[in-house]
Design a protein that fits this description.
The complex is a heterodimer of chains A (262) and B (256). Chain A is mainly alpha-helical and 262 residues long. In chain A, 75% of the residues lie in helices and 0% in strands. Chain A starts with 11 loop residues before the first helix and ends with a helix. With 256 residues, chain B is α/β, with parallel strands linked by helices. Chain B folds into two domains: 158 residues, P-loop containing nucleotide triphosphate hydrolases (Rossmann fold, 3-Layer(aba) Sandwich); 67 residues, no CATH class. In chain B, the strands form two sheets. A six-stranded mixed sheet of chain B has the order 6-7-8-3-9-10, with helices on both faces. Chain B has a four-stranded antiparallel sheet with strand order 2-1-4-5, with helices on one face. Chain B is globular and about 55 Å long. Chain B starts with a strand and ends with a helix. The chains are: A mainly alpha (262), B alpha/beta (256). At the A-B interface, helix 7, helix 8 and helix 11 of A face strand 6, helix 3 and helix 5 of B.
């Protein structure tokens, strides 16, 4: 093998080696430290995880809070997508629209979603609205940039061939631009959802939040229940992983043409 | 369907307000059921000329007339086959071929019938369900030809469509273009850099000079069909055109 990733050794053993080792190190360390306020034992965390329907410190179950967070991330993500995809299509297709929005979006993009917290509280007050705003900001830019890239990556020969068959702007949009850009837009959605998921946890730590995984782990921290904090983190990680796998499997199923078409 | 190219000129903007003249005063016309081969040294604007005829680009001066009406946007009466691979990779062969019919809202029955008819006309069977990436270069170009035929254009414009194919495939597909021509009687305008291909397929050759492309000569290919590439007349005409082109290329280098 000269370059790229070595293809040998795709076995299960290889894939679980590092997670298992971390678990063992964690177990040993927690034994040595012997202070559950700093590092609870893996078993105590697993115990919390084993009863996701159990009420935790009177602030709902792990499952309920996870569902609330998922609901929030979905709405925030959808809000971002509804604006970012049409805007990205127009910016990718029309030079004028691109120049109109390019500088503004390029300036807003480096501002981290968390920097928007004070403004979102000032504008939308404490509650659902400000949380969705933070989540949407996080998801917006990856979707926008990938949509622009995807539309620009549509080959001129595809566009002209279909235009020669009598396609108007609308036919070109639905038959060439959207399907041609779909794999790249999908990548944007995947990255955007990942960031939105990070933002929901952060948004739930804002003042006024009283549900969600982000709230739960802050609340548990306040009560010194570090094993709940860690269980919450594990759930956040697992849900993020599961969603990413769903996005990836759709990519493999629908967009294999991009890989195969050389 | 009568095509008239009337005093056509094309300039492209360069830096600092200068312009690059690629075509100048191109005038010719074509009658029905004729194959015209457009030849010229590289950079003479052959492809630009074809793209203007297709309505994909606007001329700077002059105009293109199709049965008396001006062409300024793509017109379904003309089908175009591109040099680059232009099939949509996310659609299978049948879907690619029927896309023009779908845009036109043709019935499913008509689509199925025409896809079958034109795929077999270009010599492709049993690949309707395949995706373009599963086909060879020659097969892909045949699909592109079938796709352009479904709307029954009066004229086919071909921009070096076989340039990327190996010689054997190229010969086979040239034969099928001749068959297609006999069956459908379409006017074909073929841009090519292969003199042999042009002499084999065309009834007339339009020879352009180097940049800016002007019509240098129009040659009637008075060879009876089927043409034999090894015959004396074929070879002598081919050599004559080759010499003409190399003179034009030398002249253009001397100019610069």
């Amino acid at each position: 093998m000269i370059s790229g990733i070595d293809g040998t050794g795709n076995g299960m053993a290889l894939k679980v080696a590092v997670p298992l080792a971390l678990l063992v190190i964690w177990g040993v360390l927690s034994n040595i430290i012997d202070n559950s306020f700093i590092l609870p034992s893996p078993l105590s965390v697993i115990y919390v995880l084993a009863y996701p329907w159990g009420n935790i410190l009177g602030s709902g179950t792990l499952l309920d809070n996870a569902l609330v967070s998922l609901q929030r991330v979905t709405f925030g993500f959808l809000a971002a997508l509804i604006v970012a995809i049409p805007l990205g299509i127009c910016m990718g297709r029309y030079e004028t629209v691109y120049h109109l929005f390019d500088k503004a979006t390029a300036m807003l993009r480096p501002i981290p979603p968390l920097a928007w917290v004070p403004l979102s509280l000032a504008w939308l007050k404490i509650g659902m609205g400000s949380m969705l705003f933070i989540i949407a900001i996080g998801a917006f830019f990856p979707i926008l940039l990938n949509t622009i890239d995807g539309i620009r990556g549509v080959k001129n020969s595809w566009i002209e061939a279909v235009a020669m068959l009598g396609a108007g702007e609308y036919d070109l949009l639905t038959r060439v631009f959207l399907p041609g850009a779909a794999p790249t837009i999908w990548t944007g959605l995947r990255v955007g959802f990942g960031i939105a998921w990070m933002c929901v946890v952060a948004a739930e730590m804002m003042p006024g939040a009283s549900t969600g995984l982000g709230y739960l782990i802050m609340y548990a921290y306040g009560w010194g229940q570090i094993q709940v904090v860690m269980a919450g983190m594990v759930v956040i990680g697992l849900i993020g992983l599961a969603i990413d796998l769903v996005f990836k499997s759709v990519e493999v199923k629908w967009f294999s043409w991009r890989r195969l078409d050389k | 369907m009568r095509l008239v190219v009337d005093r056509l000129g094309k300039e492209f903007p360069k830096a600092k307000g200068e312009t690059l003249k690629v075509l100048d005063d191109i005038t010719f016309s074509s009658s029905e059921e004729e194959t015209i081969g457009i030849l010229g040294p590289s950079g003479c604007g052959k492809t630009t000329l074809l793209r203007i005829i297709a309505g994909l680009e606007k001329p700077s001066t002059g105009e293109v007339l199709l049965d008396g009406s001006r062409v300024d946007s793509p017109n379904p009466k003309m089908g175009m086959i591109f040099q680059e691979y232009s099939l949509l990779p996310w659609l299978n062969v049948a879907e690619n071929v029927s896309i023009g019919l779908e845009i036109r809202n043709a019935s499913e029955e008509e689509r199925r019938e025409k896809v079958e008819r034109y795929l077999s006309l270009v010599g492709l069977q049993g690949v309707a369900e395949n995706h373009p990436y599963e086909l060879s270069g020659g097969m892909r170009q045949r699909v592109a030809v079938a796709r352009s035929l479904t709307l029954e254009p009066a004229m086919l414009l071909m921009d070096e469509p076989f340039a990327a194919l190996d010689p054997q495939t190229r010969g086979e597909i040239q034969e099928s273009i001749i068959r297609l021509k006999e069956v459908t009687g379409k006017t074909i305008i073929l841009v090519t850099h292969s003199v042999e291909e042009a002499v084999f397929l065309a009834d007339r050759l339009v020879i352009l000079s180097a940049r800016p492309g002007r019509i240098h000569k129009i040659i009637l290919v008075d060879l009876k069909r089927p043409r034999d590439r090894a015959s004396e007349e074929f070879v002598s005409l081919r050599v004559q055109v080759l010499n003409l082109l190399s003179d034009l290329a030398v002249a253009s280098k001397a100019d610069r």
